[in-house]
């Protein structure tokens, strides 16, 4: 929930698309942590703990990034959960950044595969392997046809 919603006593703050972006940022963090922010689910509707969480969020507290999470992904969800709505990206920017993260990730995987293939090829070339000769092999032979 957009922290600005909690700032007014009568909840007169109007939720906007930027409010949804805040929620999306929290959701992105949840995807990497596999838990609810501030262990909210374990609070068992304890009113004082919930008020404390709201107060912490209003004072700028956010969950810490999960170790090993893609840096660009962390940067994205931190932008999404900025306190001021005008500092949050719009949905087009979020989609663009997610696509960039995906492209970077795919390029890394391809580069990693290519490096692995190079190492494997070099390793095979350096090994002295005695493969049987296939000069007499004929794949059209009757012994291969059932």
TrEMBL record:
<protein>
    <recommendedName>
        <fullName>Protein kinase domain-containing protein</fullName>
    </recommendedName>
</protein>
<feature type="domain" description="Protein kinase">
    <location>
        <begin position="1"/>
        <end position="104"/>
    </location>
</feature>
<dbReference type="Pfam" id="PF07714">
    <property type="entry name" value="PK_Tyr_Ser-Thr"/>
</dbReference>
<dbReference type="InterPro" id="IPR000719">
    <property type="entry name" value="Prot_kinase_dom"/>
</dbReference>
<dbReference type="InterPro" id="IPR001245">
    <property type="entry name" value="Ser-Thr/Tyr_kinase_cat_dom"/>
</dbReference>
<dbReference type="GO" id="GO:0004674">
    <property type="term" value="F:protein serine/threonine kinase activity"/>
</dbReference>
<dbReference type="InterPro" id="IPR011009">
    <property type="entry name" value="Kinase-like_dom_sf"/>
</dbReference>
<dbReference type="GO" id="GO:0005524">
    <property type="term" value="F:ATP binding"/>
</dbReference>
<dbReference type="InterPro" id="IPR051681">
    <property type="entry name" value="Ser/Thr_Kinases-Pseudokinases"/>
</dbReference>
